[in-house]
Amino acid sequence: MARGGRRRPRRPSPGRMVAAVLAGLSLLSLLTCGYLAWGSRRGDAGEAPGNLLGEEPAAGAPRSQPHIIFILADDQGFRDVGYHGSEIRTPTLDKLAAEGVKLENYYVQPMCTPSRSQLITGKYQIHTGLQHSIIRPTQPNCLPLDNVTLPQKLKEVGYSTHMVGKWHLGFYRRECMPTQRGFDSFFGSLLGSGDYYTHFKCDSPGICGYDLYENDNAAWDHDNGIYSTQMYTQKVQQILASHNPRKPIFLYIAYQAVHSPLQAPGRYFEHYRSINNVNRRRYAAMLACLDEAINNVTLALRKYGYYENSIIIYSSDNGGQPMAGGSNWPLRGSKGTYWEGGIRAVGFVHSPLLKNKGSVCRELVHITDWFPTLITLAEGQIDEDIQLDGYDVWETISEGRRSPRVDILHNIDPIYTKAKNGSWAAGYGIWNTAIQSAIRVNHWKLLTGNPGYSDWVPPQAFSNAGPNRWHNERVSWSAGKTVWLFNITADPYERVDLSARHPEVVKQLLRRLSQFNKTAVPVRYPPKDPRSNPKLNGGVWGPWFKEDEKKKKSEKSKGANKQKKSKNKKKANRRKGQSFHCRSRLAGG
User: Where is the composition biased (Basic and acidic residues) (predicted)?
Assistant: First the structure.
């Protein structure tokens, strides 16, 4: 299957679809982990007006383009879902995943901006210039404007596109805003984090501002002290209530939870008083609220007639941060690292359109794959000149077929702190192992440079009131080590380094890294711009880059003069061409 292929998935027959829906509806009266039935459960995490009966309205004409609901959680750890053994209750996520397809070999990036950029473009970081860190609030930087985005492609085929939640792809120019990148509407935050109630964010002392937007303007009218998870859910319900379900919709819900600061409404602490570690307790309450919010989103999809023809995708944007309450056990490492704990994510697909419902997909899937997969499902076209790094994996997920993906470039970051003992010699003359990089090819994973915090953090590490690293498992590497090799299929917890035992495999993966690096674009990571200070923008974080009006006027006048000159030249050239052709014809007899 070619990268970014356009294969159209085969859809279930109408009879099977109806049977699947009826089977799903027959389960609605079940009690699940203390939650009431789908049709009657209503919580504070975004209550819909009226009684949610979980009933579909009368079906209209057949709709081939599915409604696409992409839910992106923030900093949810790999273990932090009920079906991965967590002590935190997530009945909604557990139910949706159990009735859908669990993605158990699913990868994202280790931080916020990289994952979001790859989701929305289908490209690795090295191909957008965002391969280092995240976009900071004060940086004149954003997702490059020459990249076509997922919502733009969906709009081309008739989708209504809406985003609710966290953007974090830059905003220094108006052209970088979500509404300029393909979304019909946007309600949410531009930055990477902020207060859940006041929606204020301080990047550094004295550099603080308000960060809640509706489309292109600060949403002061919504500053009612509502917890963001609940507020975003209410917005989603309003969008669904006002849209015509016979027309396709793409709804991108990027919740702020469970990213720090660790805040949650008091009622969600009820089941977690026994957790002594205060960060873990707060984190658990936040996740409980998020789970309830997703329940209410699902109820709204059913109530307003979307569910039967919908595809719900759930994903975390990176691994959890143990110091902020997240757990990736039994995986190694944390958010911000290229160990499995930083990049292997909770993910599943829930849809009546799936063929193999209630299954587990262990095939390799990466966050870049959603771009071509969703465009194909939407009956869109992928331009030949778009060099994608993602693959269409719908048949892999829905039918259990083999994944077209055999490798993942986790990243190459040429400006991250270099490993002191790294060298070209350590990389067999193929690669400088001082550079931070990570790649997966089939079963093998290679890391070079400084891969980041590498502890295993077991559940008992959260047993005390404060942060406790005595329970963590550590490995003391020999001095000078800058290359690691693991067989991830056999050793998903990265406990046995095989780099010394398989030097030929190391060389092969280093060559693959080198090949990828030849296609990389320059890193975009500009210094801070003092004009970004919200004090200069009415106390709001927002676009600050404005060209000087005089410069604009002079450029306009120059442009007008150029146009006049070019027109005159064209006229003269036409006359010259006419007379030349006339003469040549005469000369030719």
Answer: 545-558
